[in-house]
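Hi R.,

Here's the chain you asked about this morning:
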Amino acid sequence: MSLPPLPSQPADTPWPTQAWPVAELPGAIAQTRFTALLAQAFAAKSTDRLGETHALAIVQGGRLIFERYGEGFGPEMTYPSWSKAKSITHALVGLAVGDGKLDIHAPAAVPEWQEPGDPRREISLDLLLRMSSGLQWLEEYVPDRPSDVIMMLFGEGKDDVAGFAARAPLAHEPGRFFYYSSGTTNIVSRALGRAIGASDVAFEHFVRERLFEPLGITSAIPKFDAAGTFIGSSFCFCTARDFARFGLLYLRDGVWEGRRLLPEGWVDYARTPTWQQPETTDDPYGAHWWLGIGGEGSFSANGYDGQYTVCVPDLDLVLVRHGATPLEKKDELKAWVGEVIQCFREAS
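And here is the predicted structure, written out as tokens:
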């Protein structure tokens, strides 16, 4: 399929490796619903539509053009990634692919699946990245109804998140059923660590040296389990500005300051739609990135409680939002993000 082109960094705009270049909001934005939408987020500590909004940062043309924080929050604070960490994991896998240490289309090297006749032996990293492994899993965040993800992150699986997830049996033929699963990401994270020969401190060094430091990301706090696996499904804290840097890397096709960090085609891989069964209620998905929240061609890192980094190629825009939005307001928040981005489309 044809993907919309990714924009290049404007020639007169410095990269935000040291500090964000800034610009004013487009004047025409005042003619849109933008101000009213801000009120829906920031008029009170918790609003009827969105719950709490802690941070909103918008980058356009490589420049920070808008930034606002809720009461008690600010630009130096780090915010939880929750599942936005999955998209960071996608970038890390891309680094190993570029180094020739991983083949995403080969069967994933998962120790628990190596018995002769185990059908899970054929599951590839590609299927895991596309949430199409077929592994049995329950991804629910309801405190009084323990699910696989809750047990993995906070219960019996917390000391070895990948081992816990890898023990899941097949529920569907691999590649024939889409189901969003944090467990699959941690299987990917451990496979990545094995491929590069690093865990815990050494893995963190790899993350910082190869991804965060080139972008100027200094606030990141990745979390590891007792087995040394990066909990790539859920835990990497950053400031809103640093999450925006990560989004800009993807909007710039994996290139930073003229240097290619991610392999050519890796961002397109992230934003190429994954097949989903017709009856799914999930939004369109690529490879560890969601698709379409900011309009056609957009792609985003989404996290529990309303954490978003949205890349919008046709507007050359990155939107970062953090907050605490109740699950029942999730659809309202997604609609709000889309409406904010549409304001820029109307103003352009």
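One quick note: The first strand starts at residue 52 and ends at 60.

Cheers,
M.
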